[in-house]
Amino acid sequence: MQNYCIIMAGGIGSRFWPLSKNDYPKQFIDIFGTGKSFIRATFERFLPVVPAENFIVVTNAAYKSLVLEHIPELKPDQVLCEPMRRNTAPCLAYANYHIQSILPKGEEANIVVSPADHLVTNEGEFQRIITMGFDFVSQQEHQDALLTIGINPSRPETGYGYIEVPQEIIAQGKTSRVVNVANFKEKPNLEKAKEFLAAGNFFWNSGIFIWSLKGIQQAFCNFLPDMVALFDQGRDKFGTEEEQQFINDHFAQCENISIDYGVMERSQSRYTIPADFGWSDIGTWGSFYTHAEHDANGNALLGKIVVNECQNSVVNIEEGTDCIVQGMDHCLVAYRNRSLLVCKLDDEQRIKEWVEELGKK
Q1: Peptide linkage before 18 cis (omega within 30 of 0)
Q2: Is residue 176 left, alpha or beta, with left meaning phi > 0 and alpha meaning psi from -120 to 50?
Q3: Where does the chain have alpha helices with state H?
Q4: Which residues contact 174 (CB under 8 A, 6 or more apart)?
Q5: Angle (nearest 5°) at CA 235 between 107 and 148
């Protein structure tokens, strides 16, 4: 049984503008100044449990050279190129068919799926949980299992989806092990998020999945048969020089649907491991602020910056630029590549809207 890792790296991270743009999205940026980009850190995090030759990165065709630059251990054929963005279900169907085509005859595979841009602070615990997941889906009686990693919530968060597990599981103290999923909940409002936190049997949905190749392929057949029929047309082309042309010609016909909506919410064989390994989906400037180091006045600063009479703010300036800021409270200043953003941190959800407006000018 071989373990594979699929890294999804095709997004543009528009809520992190101006650091993240179409030509250089956030997965390739060292946002925290640690010396590693998000995608590099993701690769290294999984390397103790998956050999380098069994990584597959699915990305936009425009980013293939960036992926190979940040992860030089990969061969070019380990980077799969989507001709357009069609959400996570088509992305993973593509990767599944590719893995199936390169597996030695008679071999089986387990797969862990992860976005390229998450933060994990306790990597030892993370690897223990991933290994637990691999062990679970490797068992014959669990080969149809679809497993997602749940995160113990530390606050009433409105930016994440939630996983509900049976209340009796919590009563019995059976967290940090594989448990059944009762329901998936969409991103809640603040009042509902507080209810989830108080109930104790709701966990953040990390978007990290573990399953067997056989199990996820069967789930696609059950719940997304049209997508399976489409990819089946090129079954003899996967793993050959004709694979990319087939994808270029057919990928646009895939339904634009997430793996959560398309498969996980429809399955009866869904499980989770409630875990705590210092996880965050660094999807917004607010989440950056939460996890960045702060000065004595609560400011998160990165770059050559002087601040005066500022508190609880983010100032993120690219190398080679000087910046002086005065009189801000709970605000954001970000500058990269001749693009500047100044706004209230509380209004960061509007950044995507503003960027679209800017594009029209």
Answers
A1: yes
A2: left
A3: 38-46, 64-70, 88-102, 123-138, 167-171, 190-199, 213-223, 225-232, 243-250, 259, 285-291, 351-359
A4: none
A5: 60
Number of Cβ within a 10 Å radius of residue 40: 19
Report the C-alpha gap between 47 and 75 in whole angstroms. Answer: 15
**Dihedral in degrees, nearest 10, Cα atoms 67, 70, 71, 74:** 40
User: How many Cβ atoms from other residues are within 10 Å of residue 179's Cβ?
Assistant: 21
Supply the pTM of this predicted model: 0.91
Specify whether the CB–CB gap between 186 and 161 falls below 8 A. yes
pLDDT tens-place values along the chain, 361 residues long? 899 999 999 887 778 899 888 888 989 988 887 889 999 999 999 999 999 999 999 999 999 999 999 999 999 999 999 999 899 999 999 999 999 999 988 889 999 999 999 999 999 999 999 999 999 999 988 889 999 999 999 888 888 899 999 888 776 665 678 999 999 998 899 899 999 999 999 999 999 999 999 999 999 999 999 999 999 999 999 999 999 999 999 999 999 999 999 999 999 999 999 999 999 888 788 888 988 899 999 999 999 999 999 999 999 998 899 999 999 999 999 998 899 999 999 888 789 899 889 988 8
Helix axes 123-138, 38-46, angle to 10 degrees: 60
As a whole number of angstroms, the distance between CA 226 and CA 234 comes to 14
Strand bridging mode 300-302 / 279-281 = unpaired
H helix count then E strand count, the chain? 12, 18
Give the C-alpha distances (Å, rounded to integers) separating 192 from 188, 199, 290.
6, 11, 21
**Residue 134 in tokens:** 């691999």
User: Tokens in use for 257?
Assistant: 């649907």
- Residue at token pair 């399976």: 228
Evaluate whether 41 touches 47 at the Cβ level (below 8 Å). no
Nearest to 200 by CA among 158, 159, 150, 160: 150
Residue with tokens 């996570």: 88
